[in-house]
Amino acid sequence: MVMFGVFFVMVSTLLDNSSSSAQTRSSLSLESDQRFPLKVTKGGSFEQVRIMWDFLFNKPADTRPSVEIPVQTLTKQELLTAPNNTVYRLGHSTVLMKLHDTFWITDPMFSDRASPVQWAGPQRFHRPPITIDDLPPIKAVIISHDHYDHLDHDSIVKLAVKTEYFLTPLGVGAILVGWGVPSLKVKQLDWWQEMAIGGLQLVATPARHFSGRGMFNKNQTQWASWVFLTDDQRVFFSGDSGYFDGFKRIGDKYGPFDITLLETGAYNANWPEVHMHPEETIQAHIDLKGRNLFPIHNGTFDLSMHSWHDPLDRIVALGNALGIPVVTPAVGKPARMVEAAGGRRWWENLDSLKSSGCVSRISDLNHI
Ligand SMILES: [Zn+2]
Ligand SMILES: [Zn+2]
């Protein structure tokens, strides 16, 4: 049963090479159509079966942490009194930002599993630092694409009552409306389309990825990265993306960015087109003319073959080598966009603490 669920998630997210017909995506932008079909995984059918077999049965032991990841509980009061331009890592690609006295949240994922079912599929390493019920009113939820680790039904439904707007790429908005989100709240933007909300300018920008939530709806909806522009901050959110020349074009048009929230995780040599290795993430940050780099898409779900901390180890080392500030707050801890603070390396030595018998519970990790 469990294997079936993992198999389903894998099939529906990674191992899809179907080149969906262009006519079924007639509503998508010309630019993304020109980029179809993306090859999600390398090799032919036999090679793909081998890749899936390895993913399911030959996982290295360290793709999940051996102890709970430290989480700092976040309260509504703390959020309400936080200064503008504060950013919080809630887990995976879920980032909460306070901008212009309002709250903005990307790809809200609060459920236990990134899966069509909650009895199987990738399970999170840590609890969210705050519940949706405890969140203050949200000005807008920003969605990058429809994969389960970014578009979570239960999170969207709960957020609908306290969220003013949901911004999505083309086609994704219809999924939200189908889940009961009032259509007036849902704004679908094509690549390079802009929208003014709550004193901010938001722009849907290109990404190199793919979409689909099942076996038979591949690439029917758009995927996007997003630009947030305030009076004094320029923020980029990558969603999921392989490295491509779009980062340079976005940087030329909307950079320099004060902070880039950039995908750094779930990479693998077998699917190089759709996720970035840390070296590519750093290059994307440079292309975007970014100042601080805030790595996302790591530390919450096991979606590849690399160790759970490899993205953080490598991106911090690269940042140090190149003089790029990499912002790595622990889950739930505030980070100021304007400061070039790195944050403590909360992920280091967690596994060795466990193996040495020093800790077994999150309460033991309060020093981190
Ligand atoms: Zn994805
Ligand atoms: Zn993802």
How would you sum up this structure, described in words?
With 368 residues, this protein is α/β, with parallel strands linked by helices. The chain has one domain (2-367): Metallo-beta-lactamase, Chain A, CATH 3.60.15. Helix content is 24%, strand content 19%. It contains ten helices and 13 strands. It has helices spanning 2-13, 30-34, 45-57, 76-81, 153-159, 172-178, 246-254, 278-287, 310-322, 350-355; strands spanning 86-91, 94-99, 102-106, 138-142, 163-169, 186-189, 194-197, 200-205, 225-229, 234-237, 257-263, 290-296, 334-336. A seven-stranded mixed sheet has the order 6-5-4-3-2-1-13, covered by helices on one side. It has a six-stranded mixed sheet with strand order 7-8-9-10-11-12. Strand 7 and strand 8 form a beta hairpin. Helix 7 (246-254) runs parallel beside helix 8 (278-287) and helix 8 (278-287) crosses helix 9 (310-322). The chain is globular, with a radius of gyration of 19 Å. The model is unreliable at 1-9, 11-26 and 358-368 (pLDDT under 50). Residues 145, 147, 209, 240 line the site of one zinc ion.
